[in-house]
Amino acid sequence: MSQYTDSAKELLEHIGGKENIAAVTHCATRMRFVLNDPSKANKEKIEAIKLVKGTFTQAGQFQVIIGNEVATFYNEFTKMAGVQETTKDDAKVAAKQNMNFLQRLIAHLADIFTPLIPALVVGGLILGFRNVIGDIKMLEDGTKSLIEVSQFWAGAHAFLWLIGEAIFHFLPVGITWAVARKMGTTPILGIVLGITLVSPQLLNAYGVAGAEEIPVWDFGFAQIDMIGYQAQVIPAILAGFVLAYLERWLRKVVPNSISMIVVPFFALVPTVLIAHTVLGPIGWQIGSFISDVVYSGLTSAFGWIFAAIFGFAYAPLVITGLHHMTNAIDLQLMSELGGTNLWPMIALSNIAQGSAVLSMIYINRKNEEEKQVSVPATISCYLGVTEPAMFGINLKYGFPFLAAMLGSMAAAVISVASGVMANSIGVGGLPGILSIQPQHMLTFAIAMLVAIVVPFLLTIVFSKTNMGRNAFKRFGAR
Which one is catalytic: 9, 10, 27, 225? Predict the structure, then answer.
């Protein structure tokens, strides 16, 4: 008998039995169930299982936090329960039965941006490192940067831009590939479509405003502007979906004997034409409108109110999955303004959640069993991954989650009121300071300190009173 057998039996019983499981898979730390009837899952009894660190529902999936041993436990569970293993993609498809229209829309955005996150993180770190060596006057009495006194670092600074440009300027290639991958169509066609949006023969998107004359494709009876869409998010998403739906339709109507020739040609060529005549300009205008509204709201006299609301509400957005929408807004702000004032608040929210868990480690310092969850959760949270902290500790007790939200709110107000801007996204938590523009790093460091101290102290205060618990219950969290 395996050490996980008893826990697997308990989980199967409290999940509603084998007949209630439509699909089950796992990720790095969690079991992901698609349930035929989610109401049959007894959350209280599941969370009482010794191996379980917490539960939550997201994107139509009932997720059970197990920890690093989830892969071994998953194998034992599926064998004991007699259920078939399911891929993550199959589980996502099955989960749609439990999702409304908005949830499906958010899930689509998540599916597009999630595969891009590793590249965005790398790009953020690289641009942050270039900030440090290229823009901070740290040498010769604060008059010169590292690249101004060292040829090696000057060369490294120039070389690293090769990667940074590939990730952020050519982002549409990744987006159109991700859309094709998600829709089950031909990924290479998505890549080719993305390249046509950022081709060197096009006028760079960053040079449009200052261009004296925009080159055109002249067809005699009509002309099309040769404008690139470097770093543009919405035009790439729209073009990617048009290509995917057109390819899927063609595969239904074109005979298999000629589909290899006909489908790629009649899917790609019309999509590229539509992308440069309709989708690109419209998507650009939509993106510009969204970025203008967000930036104007954050830099207005009432920007601190927006910051307070966003800082307080971001963690609950993570629970619902709505936070994936901010990726598109951040990237749009970067393309339009050369930076984003939204991402700093996200990094501060990560830190605040980790600080609340750190406080719980202090409060429950004699609880060795809980430390197995709380210590790794704090570390991952400070590095930008909040789910273990939120679902494993903060939501379990309730009041640490509220303390983190309040600390995040205070830090966000400081960040926005001081005009803090990030050059890139993807680097959250404490390393997030590397993505901040050099002139704002000191202010952001102060906001980080607030995000560490305020949640830590509030969690201790709430633990000694009923104030935090009662306030959290009024928000309907538990």
Answer: 27
Single out the residue of 212, 327, 188, 160 nearest to residue 268, CA to CA.
188
Q: Is the same domain home to 319 and 428?
A: yes
pLDDT in tens, 265-318: 999 999 999 999 999 999 888 888 888 888 888 888 888 899 999 999 888 887
DSSP state of 57: E
Instruction: Tell me whether residue 27 is one of the annotated catalytic residues.
Output: yes
Question: Would you state the pLDDT for residue 477?
Answer: 45
Q: What is the pLDDT of residues 77-111, one digit of tens each?
A: 888 888 766 555 555 555 555 566 666 666 677 77
Same domain, 304 and 350: yes
| CA distances (Å), origin 434, targets 132, 139, 143, 209, 425 | 8, 19, 21, 29, 10
How far apart (Å, rounded) are the C-alpha atoms in residues 252 and 405?
50
Asked if residue 339 lies in contact with residue 423, where contact means CB atoms within 8 angstroms, the answer is yes
Same domain, 389 and 256: no
Task: Identify whether residues 262 and 321 lie together within a single domain.
Answer: no
Q: What is the three-class DSSP state of 64? A: strand
Q: What's the number of domains the chain is made of? A: 3
10 Å Cβ neighbour count for 449? 13
| Domain end position, chosen among 47, 62, 97 | 97
Q: Are 375 and 409 contained in the same domain?
A: yes
- Domain span at 337: 297-474
